Amino acid sequence: MKTTISNVDKQVEQSVTIGAWLHNKRSSGKIQFLQLRDGTGFIQGVMVKKEVTEEAWEAAKNLTQESSVWVTGIVREDDRSQSGYELTVTNVELIHEAVDYPITPKEHGTEFLMDNRHLWIRSRRQNAILRIRNEIIRATYQFFNENDFVKIDPPILTGSSAEGTTDLFHTKYFEEDAYLSQSGQLYMEAAAMAFGRVFSFGPTFRAEKSKTRRHLIEFWMIEPEMAFMNHDESLEVQEQYVSFLVQSVLDNCQLELKTLDRDLSKLEAIKAPFPRISYDDAITLLKDKGFTDIEWGEDFGAPHETAIAESFEKPVFITNYPKDIKAFYMKPDPEREDVVLCADLIAPEGYGEIIGGSQRIDDLALLEQRYEEHGLTDDAYKWYLELRRYGSVPHSGFGLGLERTVAWLSGVEHVRETIPFPRLLNRLYP
What we know:
Elements: E1 15-27, E2 31-37, E3 42-48, H1 54-61, E4 68-77, E5 85-96, H2 110-115, H3 117-120, H4 124-146, E6 150-151, E7 157-158, E8 170-173, E9 176-180, H5 185-195, E10 197-205, E11 218-227, H6 231-252, H7 254-259, H8 264-268, E12 276-278, H9 279-288, H10 302-309, E13 316-319, E14 332-333, E15 336-340, E16 342-347, E17 352-359, H11 364-374, H12 378-389, E18 395-401, H13 402-410
Parallel strand pairs: 3-5, 6-10, 12-13
Antiparallel strand pairs: 1-2, 1-4, 2-3, 4-5, 7-9, 8-9, 10-11, 11-18, 13-16, 14-15, 16-17, 17-18
Helix pairs in contact: 4-6, 4-13, 11-12
């Protein structure tokens, strides 16, 4: 019976055949231990010399790392195995012999592994991280589908910046200038005026010359937008969504979390509601913690976010940032014109901002004023202004960075391991 490693629990004590690659192996003379993987999981195959043909024994003995094989054997339950199962191998048939596989069981430097990323993703650790990424994506669709959101796909090529910044990748669109999208948000606002609740999930690009462990040049964003919703209501959606993601990973990625030695107690504590702290109070907290140089009106860097997060066990919302350091479209606080109705959600354990969100300006005159203050042109943003001209409503939205969320939930230090093929400041290969 042909099967996969992920399905061996349904074939205990049965003979099965699995198409697999040899991940590693060792031998004690008359017993060979084959570490096998097939893309759905890992399993140990045990071959006893006296129980198999000489041909099968030699075939297994001569296998090289990452050679592809058909392996036949009896599925056994085994409590010592990480997966709970083992394969008593009765036959091995070589499909293709791998020669001089470059990533051996010894230690390798990061740059070497990144140069061989197309092969590195076969390893247990990288496999676990990317499976957690897949679960977060799956759970994202489930959460928004169950809460009456419609998925809308914004364009990747745009004629202007979403946030009025210069960190854009420029290209030519026939005779016009175009840019790779840094956010789908403005288009999602248009979609929310048509469908009420929408979300997008797609790649975004930032031409920031940053080398920190939290930054990628190309990354993926989940960007919901909600009509008839104020800022506080949006915060509730955000904390419910993040709580749902955490619980989904805990429910469906136990083996992966174990592979990564993730401290589950830290994730099990992540349940809505989340604490909130104003930007003003965050400044005070930072000064109390020894950050004497930080002044009101300055944005927070990674050390500041980490210090703030250390005061809480759950993710924390930092609310009401100064208007001058936030995007033009954010709605000012009606009770205080110098701050806006926005929040950044800071993950615990030093993982930094995973969500940025705000209530959007819905008043046409105010948005036109903000256009002037930011030097934006009507030509580029005429369509965006028209959303306030034809049936404007209070609306809010946010964006969650997928890779930072994967890094946090899997306990990985650098976001470069959380995307299959990372694009970094000095890396466009493979």
